[in-house]
Task: structure prediction
Amino acid sequence: MREPLFFSASVTLSAPNEAQIACRLLCLNDLSHAVQFGRLHIVSLHHRNAPIERIGQFHVPEDQQKVFLSRLKTDLGLQGLAYLTTCNRVEFIMVDEAYFCMGRLQQLFQAFEPTAETMRELMSTAMVLHGDDAVRHLFRVGAGLESMVLGEREILTQLRLSMEKSRKWKIAGDQLRITERVAVETAKRIFTETDIARRSVSVNALGWKAFKNWGGLNRSSHPDDWRWPNQRQHCALPFQGGLSPGARAQPHTV
Result:
C-alpha cells in the first residue's frame, strides 16, 4: 500500500465538509496526473545535510538565474525546472519522464564547478528524491515542516515565487505548474486547518528578538538610538532569504 501523499506529522485536521472533500479529491487527481505523466525529481541541500558554506556555493545571483537555469534545463534534458534558494536551503525541483540517475546528478553539480573533494561530498550527502517521495518532500517544505523553525510561513512565499519565475522564464512546463498549485494549496490547508503555525516565527524574527533582549541595550523603538553604555559598537543583523556568493550582511552601528 502506498503511503499517503500528505503528512504523517502529529497535527490534527478539522473535519472536512463536502466542499473540502471535493477540493481535496481534485487536488489529488491533479497530483496523480503530474506524477504519472511527468516524474518529479528533487535534489535538496539544506541545514540538515550540508553546512551553510556549502549551501552558499549553490546560490545563483538573481540577475543570473534566468540564463543559468535555462542552460541547466537544456544541459540536463529536463521537461521542467524550478530553483528554490534560501539562506539555509537549495532545492532543484525537476520534472522529467526519464529517471534522474547519478550521472545526471553529477552533471547538475558540475554546473557549479566544485572541486573533486566537494563533488565526492555532494554525491554522498545530497538528498535526491523521486516520484511520491519528491512530492511528499515538496509538501513538507512548503508547509514549513522541514524549516529550521517548524511551521514558519516565509518558505511558502519563497517556494511560490521560485515557481512563478520558472513559469515566467518558460522553463517550468505544465506538470511542474500543476505540482506547484497542489503544493501551495496543501501548505495553505496545513496552515489554516492545523495548529502548526500558531506560534511559529521566521529565523530572522527569532534573531531580532534575541538581539533586542541582549543585556545592556537601551531598548529604544529605533535601532539608531540603541547603545551599550558609553560605547558605540558594530553588529551584523541576520535576515532570511538567499544570498549570492560573496554577499555579506552589512554592520549597523549601535
User: Anything to note?
Assistant: Residues 6-18, 238-254 have pLDDT under 50 and may be disordered. The radius of gyration is 20 Å. Residues 18-193 form a domain with the Beta Polymerase; domain 2 fold (CATH 3.30.460.30). The first strand starts at residue 40 and ends at 46.
